[in-house]
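Figure 3 (text version): structure tokens given as input.
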């Protein structure tokens, strides 16, 4: 190449005749550096060691003629492009054609004219220079074209990545699409296999957040990676792109079926903070190119943008939905949640309760102690309110000192009242603000959907006006929206007081209802049913007060009282010589949940009254057992071990599985009255009842039908081998003396027939 302008071009002259060499050297020596060779062999050696810029080649030479030398030169990679001019004595066109075919550029005929030689050499050298420049330009152009293509395709991919930012999909989905886009870059020999790991600050681990082409075993091996672990962990710590052409000693995590591979681990940097790692697979032994790194770092920055945008969106979303001061849902989110709760309630035919709370004296605190104290008070109050509720309930701050609560799951007025009292109690406790004790309180309005209103807006209005009513009536209190609800609430408060008194004043009575054997008509047992002999009102049925007693905890002393009375009375009947019958006492959920305490109570009552345990039966319901199956089984086993029988009351109304039933140490099943009521006309009830009977018998359980009122019912049950009945057909629940008479009347059956009570 003649790109070096400081040196003279080198001309190699090849001729076996020294005189010719001399003439040529003389002609060219001034302008060029001349190298001479007297044989073809020698010429080839020189070309190899120091390639000239042009060769003047004599045709007629011994051993190797010029044509042969030329042919050899054209075979040599280093010499192929060196222009060759033949020097010939002949002037025959045949030679010229042959020479040109071999690739020579020109002919000079002897005798040599120095001027001509010089002119020809000069022309061809400049022609060659021009040609070389052209070739170089061409190569440069092709290079440029390749670079342009790479740049264009990279740009295209980055643009696509930027576009995915706008997709309204999850971050995981966005990252998965991003991986696909990166794999599709045509110039980059990536495998369609890779992942994005994001750093979990709390766990201090990289978490596999999106992936493509990973098998299950691969995902499992790479779910979480510690900083510094394996290639990805190292790239995370180093904050720079790592490339490995294969699986080597630094590749720490392996999985079943792992193939040889190389990969790029590209940190996803947000300034000097690393958010995660982009992990991309290449074929094993891949030769990295500089443009790959450039592209990957651009792609990683784009992903940084994507993540940051997502975080910002989440932050904005949080700001749009939550109150910055308390972290509670704000008015907008509250409306969403309320509407959601209402549509769910309509679908499931359930109630929703809306409570409106306004802090009393908040304004005073704010005005006298300053806004900061006011803010702290709101934060503390919101925490106290939240602590009184279940996580499934919604507490929101509407603004100022106004809070709302949505209850969706436990909506019985009693529970709501309980919650309201608890919150009021909590708000009435002094708040300590900047070292000072501050007393505020809350006023609450409570309203029920769908009872009080049909839509969210009216419901909120109701709750608000009920709250104002509470404020008017002296604050630190709650009011239900409707008078009727309010009356009931007052009634409950009153009733609770009366129930306590009733227990002290012994106003409760135990009634007994016989259980009768279907076949023999004999009384085999009786259920003890409580009544409240309320002064001025007469006998109150348990339906009116048991739930309240249960909810207030009064059921525990009341239940013990009933149990003791029933046991004592049964002992009296047995001592009096009546046929022995088992007395059944209902247990409430509260009592049953007591576990050990219940066992103790039962044991001491049996000991005190002297009733043998085999003449006591305890009735529990399915829901009581299903709440905590293991504990229920333990309690039941202990009772059974004492010799007390257990029966399952109201069977069919709960959700106990037959499989679970098998595990309970039960004596009898009582079919709920609702299934008996329409026997034998209702085909469905017929099917259910006969199925329950045969199933219970397979489990060796006695079957008692509740609420039997008619001969037809009795006939059906007897035909279907039901063991016992209980119901108005035979007798209503009656006071002790009446029951004694029933026992007496029934006695004749015992002397007429032989047989015994099924145990
Ligand atoms: P339960 O244990 O299922 O009691 C049977 C209920 O059905 C009794 O109502 C009984 O009077 C009624 N009944 C019996 N035969 C017939 C009939 O042929 N037709 C109709 N319509 N009803 C019939 P009661 O006495 O009003 O008791 C209601 C519920 O109150 C009981 O249902 C029980 O769950 C609870 N209860 C009653 N006494 C006690 C008690 O001492 N302790 C506890 N924890 N709960 C009790
Ligand atoms: Mg019962
Ligand atoms: Mg029952």
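Below: residues designed for each position.
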């Amino acid at each position: 190449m003649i790109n070096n302008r400081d040196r003279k071009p080198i001309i190699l002259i090849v001729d076996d005749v020294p005189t010719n060499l001399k003439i040529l050297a003389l002609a060219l020596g001034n302008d060029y550096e001349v190298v001479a060779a007297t044989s073809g062999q020698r010429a080839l050696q020189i070309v190899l060691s120091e390639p000239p810029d042009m060769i003047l080649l004599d045709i007629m030479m011994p051993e190797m003629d010029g044509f042969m030398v030329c042919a050899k030169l054209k075979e040599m990679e280093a010499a192929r492009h060196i222009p060759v001019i033949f020097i010939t004595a002949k002037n025959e066109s045949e030679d010229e054609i042959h020479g040109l075919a071999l690739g020579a550029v020109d002919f000079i005929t002897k005798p040599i004219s120095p001027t001509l030689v010089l002119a020809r050499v000069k022309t061809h050298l400049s022609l060659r220079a021009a040609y070389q420049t052209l070739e170089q330009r061409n190569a440069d152009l092709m290079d440029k074209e390749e670079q342009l293509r790479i740049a264009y395709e990279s740009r295209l991919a980055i643009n696509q990545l930027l576009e995915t930012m706008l997709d309204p999909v999850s971050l995981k989905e966005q990252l998965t699409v991003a991986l696909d886009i990166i794999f599709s870059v045509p110039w980059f020999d990536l495998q369609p296999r890779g992942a994005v790991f994001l750093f979990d600050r709390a766990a201090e681990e990289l978490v596999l957040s999106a992936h493509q082409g990973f098998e299950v075993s691969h995902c499992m091996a790479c779910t979480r990676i510690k900083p510094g672990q394996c290639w990805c962990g190292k790239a995370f710590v180093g904050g720079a792109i790592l490339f490995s052409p294969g699986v080597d000693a630094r590749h720490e995590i392996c999985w079943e079926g792992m193939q040889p591979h190389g990969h790029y681990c590209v940190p996803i940097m947000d300034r000097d903070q690393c958010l995660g790692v982009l992990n991309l697979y290449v074929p094993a032994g891949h030769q990295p190119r500089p443009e790959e790194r450039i592209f990957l770092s651009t792609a990683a920055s784009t992903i940084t943008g994507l993540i940051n945008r997502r975080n910002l969106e989440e932050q904005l979303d949080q700001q749009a939905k939550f109150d910055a001061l308390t972290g509670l849902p704000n008015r907008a989110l509250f409306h969403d949640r309320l509407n959601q709760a209402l549509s769910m309630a309509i679908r499931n035919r359930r109630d929703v309760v809306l409570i409106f709370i306004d802090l009393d004296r908040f304004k005073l605190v704010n005005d006298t102690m300053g806004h900061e104290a006011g803010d702290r008070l709101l934060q503390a109050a919101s925490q106290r309110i939240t602590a009184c509720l279940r996580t499934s309930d919604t507490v929101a701050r509407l603004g100022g000192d106004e809070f709302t609560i949505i209850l969706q799951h436990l909506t019985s007025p009693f529970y709501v009242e309980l919650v309201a009292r608890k919150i009021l109690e909590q708000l009435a406790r002094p708040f300590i603000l900047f070292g000072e004790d501050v007393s505020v309180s809350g006023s609450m309005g409570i309203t029920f959907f769908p009872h009080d209103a049909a839509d969210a807006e009216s419901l909120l209005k109701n709750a608000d006006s009920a709250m104002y009513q509470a404020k008017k009536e002296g604050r630190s209190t709650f009011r239900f929206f409707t008078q009727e609800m309010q009356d009931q609430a007052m009634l409950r408060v009153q009733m609770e007081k009366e129930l306590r008194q009733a227990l002290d004043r012994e106003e409760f009575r135990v009634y007994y209802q016989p259980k009768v054997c279907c076949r023999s008509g004999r009384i085999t047992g009786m259920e003890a049913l409580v009544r409240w002999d309320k002064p001025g009102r007469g006998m109150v049925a348990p339906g009116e007060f048991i739930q309240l007693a249960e909810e207030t905890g009064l059921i525990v002393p009341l239940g013990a009282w009933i149990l003791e009375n029933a046991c004592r009375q049964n002992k009296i009947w047995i001592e009096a010589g009546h046929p022995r019958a088992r007395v059944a006492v209902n247990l409430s959920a509260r009592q049953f949940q007591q576990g050990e305490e219940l066992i103790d109570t039962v044991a001491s009552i049996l000991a005190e009254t002297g009733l043998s345990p085999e003449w006591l039966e305890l009735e529990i319901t399915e829901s009581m057992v299903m709440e905590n199956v293991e504990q229920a089984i333990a309690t039941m086993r202990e009772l059974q071990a004492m010799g007390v029988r257990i029966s399952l009351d109201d069977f069919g109304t709960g959700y106990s599985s037959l499989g679970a039933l098998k595990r309970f140490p039960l004596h009898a099943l009582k079919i709920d009255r609702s299934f008996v009521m329409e026997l034998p006309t209702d085909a469905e009830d017929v099917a259910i009842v006969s199925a329950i009977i045969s199933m219970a018998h397979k489990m060796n359980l006695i079957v008692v039908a509740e609420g039997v009122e008619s001969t037809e019912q009795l006939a059906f049950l007897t035909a279907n081998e039901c063991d016992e009945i209980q119901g108005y057909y035979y007798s209503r629940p009656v006071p002790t003396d009446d029951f004694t008479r029933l026992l007496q009347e029934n006695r004749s059956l015992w002397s007429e027939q032989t047989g015994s009570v099924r145990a």
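The longest helix spans residues 114-164.
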